[in-house]
Amino acid sequence: MDEGEREKQCFYTCRCYLTDNIFLEDYRLHVRYVTEQQFRADHQQVLRSRGCLTDEHFDEVLQKIAKEVERRQSLNIESAERTAAIQQVYRPLHPHIYHLQESFLAPEFLQIVAYCRSSGANQQGLLGMLQSEAAPRVFRLAVFTRTFCQELVEELEHFERSPAPKGRPNTMNNYGMLLNELGLDEGLTTPLRERYLGPIASLLYPDCGGGGLDSHKAFVVKYDLREDLDLSYHYDNAEVTLNVSLGKDFTGGNLYFGDMKDVPLGDTECSEVEHRVSAGLLHRGQQMHGALPIAAGQRWSLIIWMRASRQRNRRCPMCSQTPSLVRGEGFADGYTDGVGDEEGAQNSSCVLT
User: Fold this and answer.
1) How far is the C-alpha of 326 from the C-alpha of 84, rounded, in Å?
2) Fewer CB within 10 Å: C terminus or N terminus of the chain?
3) Whether the Cβ atoms of residue 165 and residue 82 lie closer than 8 Å to each other
């Protein structure tokens, strides 16, 4: 999709964003809230088993849910206000990193992409160039040079110290930032997805929409002993996810992967995967995963949730229903007002294992 097509394309959010996948950090639980009666029926027993024992505890939970829903309702407006303010007051430390250059990318990554673009490329050939992990269909690949990772972390820390406003990267992480607000989306992560990650995903994940990744959400998260230590078991609002460890020096904090979200938890075995600086882990967005606590140091990670409208227009990955659409800003949550083409119909269900 070129720049002109992107400007014409409208993206949407599913209405379930206001009701589903609300994370209760105190109880390490994702919940759905439509009415209090529904919420009690669906979640009260589990909440009690995790320590929500009194009426006061339950009232606190309801207050936190109301606060989160209010935050989500105002998200687009507040994000636009932050973006405008950042453009006014923030002066980048490394302006050159805002536009993707091949010198930022690891030579082995460029070799993989060149193969995927070649006329004879196939999945088996690509698998021979990647490092498979113990977790099913999770692959490790060098993405960036260490120099670029260092410069990006320096830019992020420079932004952290600035007076510019900052928003949470998602509902589970408290520390990090959205790259579109910082101005790193159009020149950096969009061409990275379109020109480099797309050809890889189309061969690795054709059943999950990998051949039609037409939008994304990109953000960085920070783990520190005095801030967020870990990340609870969850799945992403994505068809394909790239998770790159940018640095800095840290120990612990490995990722762990289970099966797809539709597989019962009792039937799932998790596999631990080491996170290495400058390398990325590529996986299906609906694959359950989490991050173990870091033991020392600090880690920055770049996350790109890549989305395929052909896939999600038929079934929302968050509520598992036909999406009810609300016009969004930018890439929104990756839905469009069309159901896609025949290829999308054939690839409408991601393989579970």
Assistant:
1) 23
2) C
3) yes
